[in-house]
Design goal:
Elements: H1 8-16, H2 33-45, E1 48-51, E2 59-62, H3 65-73, E3 78-79, H4 108-116, H5 122-141, E4 148-150, H6 151-168, H7 176-186, H8 198-220, H9 228-234, H10 243-274, H11 276-284, H12 289-300, E5 305-310, E6 314-316, E7 319-321, E8 326-330, H13 331-334, H14 370-387, E9 392-393, E10 412-414
Parallel strand pairs: 2-8
Antiparallel strand pairs: 1-2, 3-5, 4-10, 5-8, 6-7, 9-10
């Protein structure tokens, strides 16, 4: 049985447990294949489920595709405001509660999002594609042959970090700082983690702010250009941001442009390695690459959930959600809902409706960079298929220890000499 399916042993454990998703005992638990069985049971037995006691405090789980969509588009009732808790199941400490436009409600959300949207407009993506292809070719041509290497570091991180440096017009030779700040921004501090304490995390983020403030000061005193810092510095809705808000939007753009795309690039190779019939189908027909990209983004679901906070009491699918309640939309569950997606646990690259997935969200908070992410995945796979008749995944990857980011720390790979 290919990875990504719900194994019978996991299903047996899920259906014999009495605490459903309360199985999570640690804030850094990854959302892995074994969790899918619990979501399967929740969708069947209690799709709008209240968990009264957990390491995240009390919260509602929304697990069915159409219910998640209903919450996602109802921003009048379900708020994203950072001050109310923001967009992740784990509440941030007051010092780390950064305002950013994804964690805002209208009208401020709309005004700030509009400022940076031109960076991912169709015209700009068309301009960027040759540059992405040139870099993808250079990265792939430099890979070792006949020895095991880390695909995450050499390919997934490198391609997405180079793109981020371009979007920010950040010093290219220092681009790995963006990777580091992305890892810091999305991590949960703890022993053995990227940073061990909230104080360390705050100190690293302050270094990010200092570096980007220098860039802001350069751009604000120059004519507007097409990079994200210049857009923010000259945008009517963003030019008077507080330092905290500037840092919050930087972390949003860095993590959004880095983590999700890099985990989908890694996830696509991992999924194809676990499903060799699909890999053969792709090699036989490269025109399936766009469909495979969408299937990977559904199957991988690089962000496992988004969180909202109820602004008023509301009756929802027979349950009463109270004002102030934490509501978690489990995208990773909605993407496996067989009421909407046929055979959802299978990885099938030629599905009839491959873009039917919720990995980019719905409504006003739908991922602003979704087309750029898809384009990077498409281009890297067009170039992979031209070069490598065989890519061997040599072992299981280590997973990102997070209930929010569903991704890979590494993926050992070998390309035959």
């Amino acid at each position: 049985m290919a990875d990504g399916s719900v194994h019978q042993s996991a299903r047996d454990r899920a259906y014999s447990s009495t605490d459903r998703v309360g199985r999570c005992r640690d804030q850094r638990t990854s959302v892995r294949t074994t969790a899918l069985a619990y979501f399967e049971r929740l969708r069947a037995e209690d799709p709008v489920h209240y968990c009264a006691n957990s390491v995240f405090g009390p919260y509602w789980s929304i697990t069915r595709y159409n219910d998640i969509m209903a919450v996602d588009i109802n921003h009048q009732v379900f708020s994203s405001e950072a001050a109310l808790g923001g967009i992740a199941i784990l509440d941030q400490g007051a010092d780390l509660r950064l305002p950013m436009f994804i964690a805002m409600d209208p009208p401020k959300h709309d005004q700030q999002r509009k400022v940076v949207s031109p960076a991912v407009s169709p015209a700009n993506l068309e301009r960027l594609e040759p540059l992405i292809r040139e870099r993808a070719c250079a990265i792939l041509d430099a890979l070792p042959r006949g020895e095991t290497f880390d695909w995450v570091d050499r390919v997934s991180i490198e391609l997405t970090t180079q793109m981020l440096a371009t979007l920010f017009d950040f010093p290219f030779e220092q681009r790995r700082k963006l990777t580091w700040w992305s890892d810091v921004g999305s991590c949960i501090p703890g022993p053995g983690q990227v940073v061990e304490t909230e104080e360390q995390k705050l100190a690293e983020l302050m270094e990010c702010l200092v570096a980007f403030t220098e860039l802001w000061n350069q751009r604000v005193n120059a004519p507007p250009t097409g990079d994200l810092i210049s857009m923010l510095a000259h945008g009517e809705a963003t030019r008077n941001m507080s330092p905290e808000e500037y840092l919050g939007n930087l972390i949003l753009l860095i993590v959004g442009g880095n983590d999700t795309t890099r985990n989908s690039i890694s996830g696509s190779l991992y999924a194809l390695s676990k499903n060799p019939d699909q890999f053969a189908k792709l090699r036989a027909n490269p025109e399936l690459i766009p469909s495979m990209v969408s299937e990977t983004i559904r199957w991988q679901t690089p962000l496992a959930h988004m969180r909202r906070t109820a602004l008023e009491d509301i009756e929802f699918q027979g349950k009463t959600i109270r004002k102030g309640d934490k509501v978690v939309m489990w995208y990773v569950s909605g993407n496996r809902d067989d009421a909407v997606i046929d055979n959802p646990n299978a990885f099938i690259i030629d599905r009839e409706r491959p873009r039917t997935h919720m990995s980019f969200g719905y409504g006003i908070h739908r991922c602003v960079g979704n087309r750029l992410a898809e384009m990077q995945l498409r281009v890297i796979w067009e170039e992979i298929l031209k070069r490598f008749p065989v890519i061997e995944v040599m072992g299981e990857p280590d997973r990102v220890p997070s209930p929010f980011v569903k991704g890979y720390l590494n993926l050992p790979v070998r390309i035959p000499a």
